[in-house]
Backbone:
């Protein structure tokens, strides 16, 4: 049994396809298949059901794969021990970030991080929360930037800051007369929200304390995965939407007139770095954490944890 065989095993489990796994391991499919067959012969057990498409691990295969992930991760830690002795950080850091954070948070720290750590290659993917968690479990990402708490025992959450929700409204909307908005003021019939699958959507509905569908009057119903699109709809059509605080800072003065804060205690979202429980690249992730915290606006950096809105939609 070799580490290479275990890495091939994990690749097939991740991609559920021998040819794709071989491609990602930079070997031919016959080479990968032969090594896996040798591993199965040594263990005396079939690890994959090859009759199914996509291939699936057998019951004993699932247990072997889980242990193989631990063995491979521990072996990689040997490299980190040597790497930690070096003064300069290097290597690749694969980051998954949710769409409601990416356009507002990434520009704040990316340039300074790359200038401080020129030997580090950052690979950033914009993904939904569930996709980030899945990729972390299969070691396709090193770290996630998302909203917590997730209550997932397979991951570790490292809170970074607490960001307030704000109300963005059409200038003709009745709430435009108010300086602050209470959750009870929100009417679902006026509210534009993201598609299902976005944790931001669930949090918005939790603030309203009402589940279910969001209905709009008239003949226009738009399903969007972009907060920027929702902003434009509010500006040109009608109604309101909720925005994260970071999205407000670079607005023009004219558009900031359409923003209203919530009354105290403001509803907040907890933004965290998320890693797998057996995560590697600790020094790189610590450097990323420090850079993000230093880059965010002081008003957010100094805010204490108060009324954090859950990321799972609560039906009423």
Residues:
């Amino acid at each position: 049994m070799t580490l290479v065989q275990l890495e091939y095993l994990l690749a097939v489990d991740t991609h559920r396809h021998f040819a794709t796994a071989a491609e990602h391991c930079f070997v031919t499919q016959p080479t990968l298949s032969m090594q896996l067959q040798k591993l199965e012969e040594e263990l005396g057990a079939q690890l994959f059901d090859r009759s199914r498409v996509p291939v699936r691990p057998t019951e004993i295969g699932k247990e072997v794969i889980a242990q193989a992930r631990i063995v491979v991760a521990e072996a990689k830690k040997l490299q980190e021990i040597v790497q930690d002795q070096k003064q300069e950080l290097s290597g690749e850091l694969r980051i998954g970030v949710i769409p409601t954070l990416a356009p507002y948070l990434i520009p704040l720290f990316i340039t300074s991080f790359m200038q401080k750590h020129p030997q580090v290659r950052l690979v950033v993917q914009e993904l939904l929360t569930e996709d980030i968690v899945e990729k972390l479990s299969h070691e396709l990402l090193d770290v996630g930037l998302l909203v917590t708490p997730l209550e997932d025992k397979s991951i570790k959450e490292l809170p970074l800051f607490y960001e307030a929700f704000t109300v963005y409204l059409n200038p003709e909307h009745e709430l435009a007369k108010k300086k602050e908005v209470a959750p009870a003021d929100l009417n679902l019939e006026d509210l534009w929200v993201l598609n299902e699958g976005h944790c931001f959507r669930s949090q918005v509905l939790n603030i309203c304390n009402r589940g279910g569908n969001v209905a709009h009057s008239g003949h226009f119903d738009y399903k969007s995965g972009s907060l920027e699109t929702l902003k434009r709809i509010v500006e040109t059509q009608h109604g309101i939407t909720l925005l994260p605080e970071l999205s407000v800072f670079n607005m023009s003065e004219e558009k900031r007139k359409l923003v209203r804060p919530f009354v105290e205690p403001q509803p907040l979202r907890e933004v965290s770095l998320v890693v797998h429980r057996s995560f590697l690249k600790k020094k790189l992730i610590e450097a990323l954490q420090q850079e993000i915290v230093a880059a965010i606006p002081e008003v957010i950096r100094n805010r204490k944890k108060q009324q954090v809105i859950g990321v799972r939609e609560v039906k009423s």
In short: The chain has three domains: 3-84, 91-160+272-303, 162-267. The mean pLDDT is 87. The CA atoms of residues 19 and 297 lie 47 Å apart. The domain at 91-160+272-303 is CATH 3.40.190.10 (D-Maltodextrin-Binding Protein; domain 2).
